[in-house]
Amino acid sequence: MHPDPAEPAPLPAFAGRVIDLVDTIPSGRVLSYGDVAELLEYGGPRQVGQVMSRYGSATSWWRVVRADGRLPQGHEAEARARHLAEGTPLTSRGVDMRRARWDGVGGS
What we know:
The protein is mainly alpha-helical. The protein has one domain: Arc Repressor Mutant, subunit A. The protein has five helices and two strands; from the N terminus they run H-E-H-H-E-H-H. The protein has helices at 13-22, 33-40, 45-55, 76-86, 97-100; strands spanning 31-32, 64-65. The chain has a two-stranded parallel sheet. Helix 1 (13-22) crosses helix 3 and helix 2 packs across helix 3. The model has no long low-confidence stretch (mean pLDDT 91).
């Protein structure tokens, strides 16, 4: 039996876990790539970044940033606009991580 070309391929297990976690980040809050890996207790920032670059377009990708708050490379303008719309605390170079970082617990 051949796979149906209209059916999307299933996500690899780690990618699915990353996307599921990113989907839970509340509006106006962020996690760093390393935060995502730490909460999943697996992988590291680079692996999370690879997942986001390959599969993140269907999720709230702008809510995952570098540890220093810089926005996703190549998508800075769109990410900044989305953060402004959500009321995410920002600095001149990106997200104010001290104020916007989500602890991974609850809805905010």
